[in-house]
Design goal:
Structural class of chain B: mainly alpha
Order of helices and strands of chain A: HHH
Radius of gyration of chain A: 17 Å
Helix content of chain B: over 70%
CATH topology of the largest domain in chain B: Four Helix Bundle (Hemerythrin (Met), subunit A)
Shape of chain A: elongated
Number of helices of chain B: 6
Number of strands of chain B: 0
Number of domains of chain B: 2
Oligomer: heterodimer
Largest interface: A-B, 70 and 84 residues
CATH superfamily of the largest domain in chain B: NADH-ubiquinone/plastoquinone oxidoreductase chain 6, subunit NuoJ
Radius of gyration of chain B: 21 Å
Distance between the termini of chain B: 65 Å
């Protein structure tokens, strides 16, 4: 049964990675990153249950806090970019290109 | 047996929500289907006896972070014309799948080599507020404080980034 949870987390992680690679909408890319963080969380909680120790739960809470901080900053950057370019296309955001 | 059926339901919901997130064109549809994934994952945490993480997943992830994202999507008032034209979307998703496939296969092999272990629901206090809190404030106190500083820094950074630009010049 433990393997089913880990397989599910692999599937979710791969789907998130495909979203980051293939899509060009900023919000979809951002939520795909959140999906990958959630897949990692699922692995933490599964192994916490397997070893019957709550360290994994604490780490999952840390990941949630980092995801919240990332959401606040990333959405501020998205608002700023939308103000400058009024586009949501990641191909348009090439300001660092020399 | 009942827990296995619930696992199957939640797993299918989670994968369907994730597929919807990758495939939907409008970010609002993607966000709604991502909420389905998050709630299904909360159910999986409950099946793994992680009571506190189950509640936090619902309150922090499905509640706070997703409502922030949905708020920003609505704040920008995105029309269908503003969205990037992704004519080769299915093709690039196929290409992304081909790129990701070896990584997934590698992880699959690793998981397959792990020994079998039962994850039946525990009736004890495992994963409750008291147990997690004791470990959090004994063994993980320094990381906890560092995370609180990280949240403060990101709060100030978000205010400075998205705040008034005219006053700085």
């Amino acid at each position: 049964m433990m393997h089913c949870y880990l397989y599910l987390s692999i599937i979710l992680f791969c789907l998130g990675m495909v979203g980051v690679i293939a899509r060009r909408n900023v919000f979809t890319v951002f939520m795909s990153i959140e999906l990958m963080l959630n897949a990692a969380n699922l692995v933490f909680v599964t192994f916490a249950r397997v070893h019957e120790h709550v360290d994994g739960h604490v780490l999952a809470m840390m990941v949630m806090a980092v995801a919240a901080a990332e959401a606040a900053l990333a959405l501020a950057v998205v608002i700023l970019l939308h103000k400058h370019k009024s586009k949501l296309d990641t191909n348009v955001f090439s300001l660092l290109k020399g | 047996m009942f827990a296995d059926g619930l696992f199957l339901v939640f797993a299918v919901l989670a994968v369907l929500g994730a597929v919807g997130l990758v495939l939907f064109r409008h970010p609002m549809n993607g966000a709604m289907s991502f909420v389905v994934t998050l709630i299904a994952l909360a159910g999986l945490y409950a099946l793994l006896s992680a009571k506190l993480i189950f509640a936090l997943q619902l309150i922090v992830y499905a509640g706070a972070i997703m409502s922030l994202i949905v708020f920003i999507i609505m704040f920008l008032n995105i029309q269908p014309a503003d969205l990037p034209q992704e004519e080769t979307k299915l093709l690039s998703i196929l290409g992304g799948g081909i790129v990701v496939l070896p990584i997934g296969w590698f992880l699959f092999k690793i998981v397959k080599s792990l020994p079998m272990h039962s994850v039946a629901i525990m009736g004890t206090d495992f994963g409750g507020v008291k147990e997690v809190g004791l470990v959090l404030f004994r063994d993980w106190l320094i990381p906890f404080e560092i995370v609180s500083i990280l949240l403060l820094v990101s709060l100030v950074g978000a205010v400075i980034l998205a705040g008034k630009r005219g006053t700085a010049k």
